[in-house]
Known about the structure:
Blueprint: H1 8-11, E1 52-55, H2 65-68, E2 74-77, H3 91-99, E3 106-112, E4 115-117, E5 128-129, E6 141-142, E7 150-154, H4 157-160, E8 167-170, H5 175-181, H6 197-204, E9 208-212, H7 216-220, H8 234-252, E10 259-263, H9 285-299, E11 302-306, H10 324-335, E12 339-345, H11 349-361, E13 365-369
Helix pairs in contact: 8-9
Amino acid sequence: MALRVLNVAAAALLLSGGCIARNAAEEPNDLPDASSRLTQIRSERLRGVQSWAIQLRGQPRLELEPIRTSAYDLVVIDYSADGTQAGEFSVEQIAALREGAGRPKIVLAYLSIGAAEIGRFYFADAWVTPDPREQPDGPFALTDAAPAFLLPTEADRADRGTGLRAVFDVRYLDPLWQQIVIRNPGRHPLIADAQSYLDRIIAAGFDGVYLDGLDAYQRFGPGEIGGSGERPDAAWRMIDLVLAIADHARLIRGRRDFLVISRNGAGIILPEAFPPEVIPAGATRAQFVAQCRAAYLEAIDGIGVEGVFYPGPAAADNPLAPQEALLALVDQYRTAGLLVLAIEYLTTAATIDEFYSQARLRGWTPYATTRDLSGLTVRPSQPP
């Protein structure tokens, strides 16, 4: 795995300019043509991944034994049995899960960088009303005690797809939020000296992270990508956040083989995410986009995508309607040597077989399950 060379002190919290720090005079380096997309997976650890699954909750707690004894090559789980600090999995539990039952697994922890969830170690009950201990299902509104990085309206839980608990979107560039996520330098006004989210995951022995919330850049970015325009630099700042996560794990914590797989947000490498006003002096738009794209693709090991073949408003079994532009874009990630984890919410055997066939033809690794991600799904016609 290639590692960027940077000053360790700068990587300790945030990269002030991960894209800008690269040589602005570089010529653009376009992604390979998607016709050669079945190239070898870049990460040696991921080359043997033929199946994957994701389960983020249980009834009422996430149980590891069914996952441990399953035949899946790669699994994504929450770092905690119930999402809380008290339910955090131990080093021994994650080690046993990784060993599997005669079949070792790659185990990734779900990590949301674009939304804050009620019940997490960093979330104070006083930030919302009603009290979540008395009305755990809400709906919730923020109180005056809530930090400024929380957006005022509770997000659509179904849209987030975590199936965990109420969530509030965040201003992901806020330093206090980034310290909660990446590295807490201590004396934090909200979590005091508690470990960051990422450090908890690293300490538990996970193989890497499955980053959710990257598509938040679209919310704050330029109108050209449907954003509010609040932060024209939203895309490359999100890329810098991903770079900081990768560097903290691999360089600061010494986990050089730590895996980073993003969830959605594939369009973050497209030119329209980089309006002219954010291009640094001395660089063309094409050069800057190419630099940011190269940095991002170097930092991540794969991308997870959902609803690319069967988009729609239904909770499950939307009709086949491939998003051709998105398919072509994700193919470029695969051509660049990244693992593509595709998920669709399907229940009928024929449709599932169709999805698996289409995904595998593109060199993607498919998984069909239910939207709430509350159970491990094993399909008789498509065993792992």
